Every structure is written in C-alpha cells, then in structure tokens.
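Before our next group meeting I need something from you. Please put the record directly below this note.
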Amino acid sequence: MTEKKNNAQKKTAAETGQGGSLERPNIYVPEGFEEKLQGHKQGAGDGQNGKNGRRKNTTPGEQSAQKARGGQGGRGRGGRQKAAQDAGLSGQDPKGAQKAPAAKKPQPQSAPVQQQRTAAKGTGQNGQQGQTPAQKGQQQKTAAKGAGQNGQQGQQTKRRGGGENQPARTAKASAAQGSKSASAGRGHKGFKGGRASLKIISLGGLGEIGKNLTVYETDSDMLIVDCGLAFPDEDLLGVDLVIPDFTYLERNKDKLRGIFITHGHEDHIGSLTYLLKKVNVPVYGTALTMGLIQGKLKEHGLVGQVRLSVVKPGDIVPVGTMSVEFIHVNHSIPDACALAIQTPAGTVVYTGDFKIDYTPIQGEVIDLVRFGQLGSKGVLALLCDSTNAEKPGATPSERIVGGSFEKLFNDAAGKRIIVATFASNVYRIQQIIDTAVKTGRKVAVFGRSMLNVVAVASELGYLNVKEGTIIDIDQMHSYTDDQLVVICTGSQGEPMSALTRMSMGDHRKVHVGPNDYIIISATPIPGNEKLVGKVVNDLMKLGADVIYERMYDVHVSGHACADEIKTIISLTRPKYFIPVHGEYKHLVKNANIAKSMGIPPKNIIISDIGKVIETDGVEMRFGGTVPAGRVMVDGLGVGDVGSIVLRDRKLLSEDGLIVAVVTIDSATGEVVAGPDLVSRGFVYVRESEEMMTDARDVVIRALDKSKLTGYKDWSTIKGSVRDDLSEFMFARTKRRPMILPVIQEV
C-alpha cells in the first residue's frame, strides 16, 4: 500500500510540472494517445532539470535516442478535466458527421506493458533500481547530496536502458541506433535522424487584416485553427466577402481531424460554413463562439450536419498525434482563448487575438500563469498577434469606456442617444445597457448582426439585462427622446448598415435630427476612414451631435500593444517566433519586438500566405508552398468572380460601355440594319450625336474591310469592329470604354 501511494505521488508530481507550479486536475485521453506523443513528452517533460524546471540541453542524436526509448514520464503540463458542455449545441452525432475524439479513462494495461512500466519505475525509491551493483554503491555514497540529484541520476540511467550486465553507454548507443532504424523511411526528407516533422501553414491572416486560417500538419494528422473572412477592398467591385482558398484542405481532408476556433469574430469564423460544405469535421470552441457559429449554420442550412463541441479554458482535446489546450485570454469578445498545441516536434503556442486587461468587465484576467508554465517546460514556437505591434505601451482596459459613457449620457440630457459599435463587442454592449439603466433609459437594438449577437449572448448568460430594459423597435414611439438609447451597427461606415442608412435618411424607423446625440464607439479599420468620415459628415448635416474616438475615450482596442507582447514572450520564452495577424508592416514591427527580447533574428520567421514552415523541433525552415489565395463571394456565387470579371467591372466603372448592334445579310455580307450604338456610363448620346454618327461610320468601314479581305469568322469580324471603334473613341475622348459588338446574321 505504501509503495502504491508513493508511486501515485510521483505520478502526480510529474503531471503537475513540479517546482511549486499551479496544480491542475488531470484530464483523461484515449488509450494509445500518450504513446503517440511519447517522443515529444520525453523532450517536454522528462528532459527537465529537477532544480529549476528548465529543459536539459541535448544533442540531436540524444533526442532521437530518447524518442526511441519512449520516456515513461508524463507530459509535464497540467490540464483541467472538463466535459464538453454543449449548452444545447452539440446534441447527438449527425448522420455522416465525423465524431469528435472523446476523452476517456485509460483501459487496464496488458501484463507485458505493466511489467515494462514496473521495471522502468523500479521497486526502490527515487527510480534507482535497474542499475548495476557498482552504480548502486555509488548512489549510496552520494545519497546525502540531495534527493533531487539522485532522482535525476536514476532517471537518466533507467532511460538509457542500463541492464544489470550491460554498461549504460553501450545501451545508449544501441537505443540511438534503434531510433534511427525505426524512424528511417517515415521521417521527413531532409531532417537528420528521421525526426518527426511539423508543418505550419497560413492560408490567410498574413499581410492582411482578416481571413485568419492556420494549418498544423504532421505526417498523419492535420488540424485547423480559425476560419475567418475579410471584407473586400475598394478594387473588388461588387464583391461581398473574401474567404481563403480551401484547395489544400480539400486535397488533404482525410488527414483533417478538427477545426479549433479561438473566438467569435468574423475574421476568425466568417468562412467556416463555406469550408464545412466541403469537409465535414468536428468544430471546437467555447460556448459563445459555438452559439454564434450555430447561427451561421442555420443561415446556410447546415444545422444537424456538423458536430459542434463546446470546450472551456483549460480543456485539452486530443487530435491524433497532437493535442490542443484552450487558454483563457482577454479580448473585446468573451470566451476568447489562446491555444497550446502539443505536437511530436514540440509545443506551439498560438495567442489568437488577445490583450492583457487586469480589470475586465466580465470573467478573469488572462491566464498568465499558464503561459509561464508552458514557458518553463519549453515552447518550440510562439505565433503572436501583430495587429497593434506598432503601438507602444499597453492597451487600456475596457472599463475606461464605461466611465466615458456615463459622462456623455449625462451631457446628452433631453436628447435621444444613438450608439454605433461592433456587433460582436459584447462587453461594450453590456456597458451601454448598464449606463442606460443608470440614466433611466430604455434600449432599442438595430441591425441584423447586432440583434443576433444580443440574442445569443443573453441566452448564454454573457449579457446581463434587467427585464424590461430592451424594447422592440416598434415600441419606440411610446417613449420620448430623452428616454431612449439606440444601439446599432455601422461604426465602420458599411454601406447597408443601420447608421449609414440613418445618415442618408433611408432608415424606416429612425430619422436623425437636431435632437439626436450620436456616439461612434469604434476605431475605423484601415481603409474605412473615408467611409466613416462621410457618415459623420452626413449626420452632422442633419443637425445631430456626433461623438467619435478622437474626441473622447469611447473606444479601446482588443489587441495587445508592444509591452503586452513583450510580457507573453518573456513568459513563454519560445525558441522560434512567428508574427501573425496583420499587414506586413505589423509583422515586421512584431518581429522587432521579439528581437528586442533577445530572440535571435535567425529564429524569427515572417511567413506569407501559402508558405510552408517545417520543423522537427531542432530546426525550422521554409519548405515550399501550397495553393493559397483569396476566393471572392458575390451573392450566392463562391469563386465564380475572378481576375477577368474584376477587370471587366473595373473597366465598366471607369470608362463605361458601348454596345454596337448591326444586322448583316448572310449571302452578300451587306449591312441590312444598323449599326446602332448604345452608350452606358460613357457619354450622354443626345449631347454627343455628332460623335456617335462618326462612330457608326467607323463600324461600317470595319465591316467593309472584313468583307473585302474575305473574313467569315465572326470572332475576327467582332474583333475588327472592337479595335477600330476603341481607337476612334480614344482619339476623340482619351477614354477607352468597353466595346461590345453584337452582329446578327439574316
């Protein structure tokens, strides 16, 4: 009984990381999963120095030998046992959907396995059994030097396989040779010793804002982190959304084990439904994130066809040869998480969007303790948010916005208050509602996305709203202006948003006038400054008072600034640093922060969309490219708008269109009717009759020239008409409208 108790205590100490670190309950994983990761566990758990918790330096050959020997220690990191609470989101497994890996208790081991574990642990104290008699004697002589040194020496000896009749050095060489032989052929070509490789591939989110999607791939498994969209630039005429290219994921869908979502913003979940129509895999995320995703599934008719698994911060999800741990972080939306991804090559920490808020509106402060624990055990790579990397200092707390709201609401006495903000900023919405209650006002909500978020957040308990505070928009006429607060979308000047329609006088329910006090509680996303400025100008022309960020503290960012990034780097102490999430200038600034923290420039990797980063835990490098890019969504069409269509739209928007219609006798080639010219977006025909008459003569001459040369090919004739008419129009107007010849044969 005493021996069992001692062994149990040792196991608990190994799993919680030792060294007085914060203890976390264990989480069970499927049988065999631990053996798949034992090579990584050897480096991340057993390779620790017993005194200070740092990893012991080993040569690549020794690391290969350790993988072959299959260390017996635990992962060395904690994890809280959390059941996947679906809050009504996961339900039963839909027909045809792939089941998510379920955590379960390990089954009893067979006798040979149990004997091996018993032999490895030894029958004595501190793992000293299994040594030669000479080694035992040496151990007794040095026992007074400290149990930590003895335990370390005994563990090193047992892992080397030192039998009673074989020197430890010979066993070490044999194990290294065995590792080389066993892994030969399955290791990635180019890495020494056939070490297991990991690929990190970004299909979006690099060199741009939005469209975040990162792939982690081993020889047999693949997982995805986030699946977002981007909003179109000005040059993408008529395009509604931009999503990543899923070609590589479709080609490797047999390896794909799951999609892990860090939080519920559109740039992280917006393209998920488009991917799920092509590959059916489990989706993992926190409760609010899953609630927002479920709404998207309803819109696309995918309810009941996708497995949604709700997790909590601290949960660990095994995924083939990898595992993913969710870590609580602060952001502008609740339930945001970073991820610690355990792979055969090492631990990769992905921050997601984060900030360090010591006074959050709801929930806890970011789990800095867990980042420190991971750093003490060794982090191979840190993928860090770069959005605010060029801003010094730290991002202010969300609470300062609440103080500004109270002051502004008091200043707006007697007026109707309209607040525009991001629909997903639940903390901001909560503060608006709280301030409305304090000032005795009712709240009306406008905008489809805003209504959806408020409904989901209220149902799941992320919004605390006193009964009777939120009223239906049709009830607004029952209250005076000084009794109302309107929360709406449109903080980015979106053309169809509620605030933009109010500024144009097109909103059916709200007509802006001098008795309105409007607060724009957001910062314009790069590229949206002109749109926001236009909305502000139009609202002021209607007589309203407009408050925006430059005037008061009505907005704070949800992303970390330079000092917060330094804090995460100092806690995790990564070997490699990979900036993500931002334009190229943001990535470079983040790389400079890593350099200032002592990370060697050769260990800082600025990647690009489609580039493959390969690592075996010892070195990291680029390893080719995969299909990547942007896919345009226009209405119900996905990917049917390409460069040629965009070019035509650009030409139409710049110089307009001329349609030349003519009817020709099929026997003689003579013109029977026309040519008639139709202008759209080029010139007003009634004011340019002389030029249009000359243009008709140009078309007739082009047709006569084709008849004389004996052309019978319609495409050649049309091309001749198009070229001659285009040259004529450019000579007269210095513009090149799109020419569309229409030739009919009778």
The first strand starts at residue 198 and ends at 204. The radius of gyration is 33 Å. Residues 1-188 have pLDDT under 50 and may be disordered. Residues 567 and 614 are 27 Å apart (CA to CA).
